[in-house]
Amino acid sequence: PRDPPDGEFSRIDLLNEILPKEILRQQFTIERYIKIPDELREKYILIGRPTPLIRAKGLENALNTPAKIYFKYEGATPTGSHKINTALAQSYFALNEGIDHVVTETGAGQWGTAVSFSASLFNMKSTIFMVKVSYEQKPMRKILMNLYGGNVYASPSNLTEYGLNILKENPNHPGSLGIAMSEAIEYALKNKLRYLVGSVLDVAILHQSIIGLETMKQLEMIGENADILIGCVGGGSNFGGFSYPFIGNKIGEEYIAVGSEEIPKFSKGEYKYDFADSAGLLPLVKMITLGHNYVPPPIYSGGLRYHGVAPTLSILIKENLVKWKEYNEKEIFDAAKLFIKAQGIVPAPESAHAIRAVIEKALELKKNNEKKTIVFNLSGHGLLDLTNYDSMSKRLI
Amino acid sequence: PRDPPDGEFSRIDLLNEILPKEILRQQFTIERYIKIPDELREKYILIGRPTPLIRAKGLENALNTPAKIYFKYEGATPTGSHKINTALAQSYFALNEGIDHVVTETGAGQWGTAVSFSASLFNMKSTIFMVKVSYEQKPMRKILMNLYGGNVYASPSNLTEYGLNILKENPNHPGSLGIAMSEAIEYALKNKLRYLVGSVLDVAILHQSIIGLETMKQLEMIGENADILIGCVGGGSNFGGFSYPFIGNKIGEEYIAVGSEEIPKFSKGEYKYDFADSAGLLPLVKMITLGHNYVPPPIYSGGLRYHGVAPTLSILIKENLVKWKEYNEKEIFDAAKLFIKAQGIVPAPESAHAIRAVIEKALELKKNNEKKTIVFNLSGHGLLDLTNYDSMSKRLI
Amino acid sequence: MKYLVCYMTLGYPNSDTFLEFIDKSQNLGCDILEIGIPTNNAKYDGPTIKSSYKKVNKINIENEFKNLSHIIRKPTLALTYLEDHENDLENFLKMMKKYNFAGVLMPDLIIDYIGEYKKYHEFVKRNELNDVIFVSPTVPDKILKEVSEYSDLFLYYGIRPTTGIPIPISPDILVKRVRPLVSNKLIVGFGLSNEDINSVIKAGADGIAIGTAFIKKIDSEGLDSSLNLVKELRGILDET
Amino acid sequence: MKYLVCYMTLGYPNSDTFLEFIDKSQNLGCDILEIGIPTNNAKYDGPTIKSSYKKVNKINIENEFKNLSHIIRKPTLALTYLEDHENDLENFLKMMKKYNFAGVLMPDLIIDYIGEYKKYHEFVKRNELNDVIFVSPTVPDKILKEVSEYSDLFLYYGIRPTTGIPIPISPDILVKRVRPLVSNKLIVGFGLSNEDINSVIKAGADGIAIGTAFIKKIDSEGLDSSLNLVKELRGILDET
């Protein structure tokens, strides 16, 4: 990461002021393994880790493929996605330096849900700035965060200078992730709280690597070899957390990162320094990016609307160690429907991108009659996205 | 079960016409164990069985109790509740006699969800008559059943004589579980399909006993002894399925069945012959009942509004082998909130009744400093009940 | 030798035919007669027997008993629900005794009066009648074992929830499970098909009870056919 | 003996003070001089060094080099970003050579020009200058090991993402991990505190590079304080 040459302040210094120290240490360490503190480990167990590795027999049958398909099911965590893995760690390290209140922003709501429950588990307060349009369209997410004890505010809010200025210009501003983040950071700075980061940074991927490490162990326990590993990419933390342990240990022959055709970062993105966030408050990182000012279309997979690809994943893609795929919403919806009927689990639309690639791969293996093993990360369930699926079905059919 | 003396038809004979033969055989068998056929067993594995047995460390911490608390988490199944356990078995045995289409009714939607997914897993069609008022108020349940490929009709519908007659009298009739069931049975009879039964019958409890059998094995694997077993009671199938294996094997010292104070069947019910269903289409069974004409108040725990207690459970309660508790909605909501903040899982309001009893017991053990082990059945998650929780919080606070 | 218990509703379809059925069936292989006492409250009977009760509900029971008493040569039981006699049981038992009944079978005794069954059992015995006890698969093992010792003549085991409706069950599994619990003779009934008969006998039953099938034969094909059925059943039992 | 690499921005805060700092620091314990060439594009420098560049952006580099050339008695490196010289690198290197510089250190060479670093390295060598290579913790082990052999004089390891900002890291862990990969001398820099110095030396570093701290001292307490800091650092290094 680096600061922009012309910045009026140092983003790296800002990290220093808003992130827990141990989080920064982990962000910039080169240790290959970092021990999980006992208290944190206990919370991972409490939320049901290790999450199950499930043979997708229903999907195999539906595709009539000779391939074996397994999925690591992060939707089995109480908050329904992998996000909890880093939310817990960041909350814990904040608590450890005497902070009793964490702050973040959320768009679709998965991250805010994870943060508010993590805070609850450590008896901390949490404040979530939720993009106003999501706040209004996803009432259940707000209810859930409230049940976890989170204070949820529609952003732009009147809690920050930044929000007040925007509201002054347009009281009906629908908000954006950049605005919500600016508000969260301002709020954290002003009140000397800690800000939690949902993805992209190496440290988030580090925390998510519990997914891949567990998966490796689970495969080993059942004597199974992974040949092809697949995950979807928003910022890259679920894909990285799932696949890096395999890549690092040279297990598997193919790694496929899946994005959305509507947010064509893999196919159209440039590899360059860009702000990690759309607000431009975090440092520049060298990554594949559509530009932090990119305005994503309103696809249902809110978590894939991020403009870039985590720096480490960008390098792996540049070096051709990881392949990529992009699919459009119609393809995603069809894949999700097939999976729902075959496995019963409603995938988050984001995770359905991985499923689409799995299906394609499984059919390819069928054509060549290859008995390989595909393992993918089902990063979250879509039970709170059912109305989205309904609109999708109305729009796409 | 017996027929009413004055019935114009034999309900027992009706069972014969609408239920799969093997289901009837299992209903009236006295085998202690019935082998799960391989194909059915495969589906149980596919849906993630064995479901996890989780130590409720968060709840223990929140209560600061010396008791250990474990819960068997049936909400971990794709359809989110224990209902899938019998839906799968009944669908399988229907398929086995050449039927390709199953029919049932649903109120709150959990049962219909389980049936439509079970049918999908066996490539069967499914038709669900959903009480009209739920159909309108719970759109997500309908979306989910549709995604599973289920045909969902608001009941009263114009698909049956029974529905047509009611609609003729009142086109805006809100429907009832009895009407929906009558429609489902008529539809099954007319089209020579099979009707699936959600609870109460012994055979449903038999299928649910996979819960208790797994729990026993899981406790054994971690070297833990269950002292107190707790579950909520709608018809009794989740409680029975969970607790009977323990009771039968004389494991545990106390079994507590929990109902709703608003549906006071334990405290006010009579032990007598009554229709198993509110429509009066199923045989009479001897049970603790408020009467099949009992009109339950509109509590949030839709699954607990049933008028009776399964005959086997009724005997166990009469014989004092199983104790009962009843709590009001305020107590349930408070218990649910505590659990949500401590464990992250949003319980179905029905399952929150078990949680309330667990909390009471754990605090009692704390007072006496007794280190006992409580195990309860968390029969379902409440992610699709979040708007209910919201109304509850507005009404009860 | 396996026992054949033949059931017929009292006075069905009319007094003469009833008496003829009872008379001849004793020659054709019936070992024990079971006479159903009409009631509006046939809790554990299926539609066929229930409707037979309805058809004869105007008969004079004592008259029928008297006629019957002259022709019975085999032990004869009255099947009647205790619920119908809660207040006049003694009178009823005395009448039975008077007309040569060997005993009584009350299908609701163990199911609905389990807490007081010994009291009623003693009462029957004091009236010098046999008390044949009826149990079903829902009766717990412990109770079943206990009452089988109390039961006179034999234990009557109804393997289906109601008479005459062919609910699919596994007769062999049901009978094999109770056989070791019962030191008494074990007679099995409730909706038996010819296949069922084979399998319950192979599973260790000492005999069978048949009722609905006779009534259906009389209704559809007449008395002779029903008597042929007695013969046929006797044949099946003798072959097994 | 541990090396102390002393950084100062060219002509900061003014020509005279700059020259005095360079002159005296060589007597007080600096082993190697590192001279920052002002730029608007200080990609890997923190706010303190960046603002020092801004303050001196009107100086004449060649004049400053000429003055400097008369007083340098220790090996002297120019710290400059390759991105600033993509088109005039040869001229710049020739000027350095002319004014007695021992070598050049380009912090973006390995990070942003990894595919062509050998080409640039050879280019520096052909101009008879040492090419000191800069690496950071994000450089993969394999590349780090490879370039450490190419690097002249020593390998410069910047342990923080930017200079002068005390991002919390574990210096000992970082240094211990790279030490076995580096057969060359290993000099560690970027935001070192006194504690960090101890721990990186204990972890096997051959020396340290300090910059922001000198500039802050000059800004806040003046030249003498910054020279005292040189002495103090020399002391710390000699004690470890």
UniProtKB/TrEMBL annotation, chains C, D:
Enzyme Commission number: 4.2.1.20
Pfam family, one: Trp_syntA
Entry's Gene Ontology molecular function annotations: tryptophan synthase activity
GO CC annotation: cytosol
Reactions catalysed according to its record: (1S,2R)-1-C-(indol-3-yl)glycerol 3-phosphate + L-serine = D-glyceraldehyde 3-phosphate + L-tryptophan + H2O
UniProt pathway: Amino-acid biosynthesis; L-tryptophan biosynthesis; L-tryptophan from chorismate: step 5/5
UniProt keywords, alphabetically: Amino-acid biosynthesis, Aromatic amino acid biosynthesis, Lyase, Tryptophan biosynthesis
Taxonomic superkingdom: Archaea
Function text: The alpha subunit is responsible for the aldol cleavage of indoleglycerol phosphate to indole and glyceraldehyde 3-phosphate.
Family recorded in the similarity comment: Belongs to the TrpA family.
Subunit field text: Tetramer of two alpha and two beta chains.
Name the UniProt record assigns to this protein: tryptophan synthase
Organism for this UniProt entry: Caldisphaera lagunensis (strain DSM 15908 / JCM 11604 / ANMR 0165 / IC-154)
